[in-house]
Amino acid sequence: MEKIAVKVDDLTVAYNYKPVLWDIDLQIPEGVLMAIVGPNGAGKSTLIKAILGILKPIAGSVTIFGKPYATQRKHVAYVPQKGSVDWDFPTTALDVVMMGTYGSLGWIKRPGPNEKKRALEALEKVGMLSFKSRQISQLSGGQQQRIFLARALVQDASIYFMDEPFQGVDATTEVAIINILKELRKANKTVVVVHHDLQTVPEYFDWVTFLNVKKIATGPVKDTFNDDNLTKTYGINYKVSIQK
Ligand code: ADP
What we know:
binds adenosine-5'-diphosphate, single chain, 6-stranded mixed sheet, alpha/beta, 3-stranded antiparallel sheet
């Protein structure tokens, strides 16, 4: 039987008593590269934040490989939405990536040569090695996104959550990011991505969840990514001309 990486049961989340996620049941199998799609305000970011315990649900529960998130933290990496990060913080690209290694260190230990080596390798992987000493505030949006991806990579997690990693990046960066995500999947990692560009869903992802306050559908892209679910999620007669 396939292993379930993330299991969400009866999850309801509200802001100021207004539910923005309603009674979500969701199982994400291990090793999938999954897009979460839905209109603005559908609750996509909220779902990720609730899974990661950043937001407290009013009902429901979440397990990561069968256990509560609190005990599974080190297996989970998160790349937040770009706008939610304070880029003025005075730190270099390398420092940001090094922070990703902290989870694997004990309380007293400080990052050493091994952590630095891993951070440099991750920077190289995302094509940012030559920017290692640059202040993060002096990088473009796409470059900052690559740095955050590098930080997630050094965490060596089992599950990666990424909130719109392609937002505001150029075509080259988009290809670089998707290649890394596909590599992660090959290594049997589970990758969950909030995604906006419906046209690229079949090309980039093998699993998809449609969300609009409620869960509309979830499953393999080939069975689930169809006009019926798009219409239920985005409104009347939504159609995209997808080449399958
Ligand atoms: P998505 O990621 O699908 O665009 P979000 O999860 O960001 O949607 O937001 C879902 C709903 O919750 C939206 O209606 C949004 O306005 C509302 N919302 C998000 N964050 C907050 C907040 N901090 N306080 C109040 N309402 C919020």
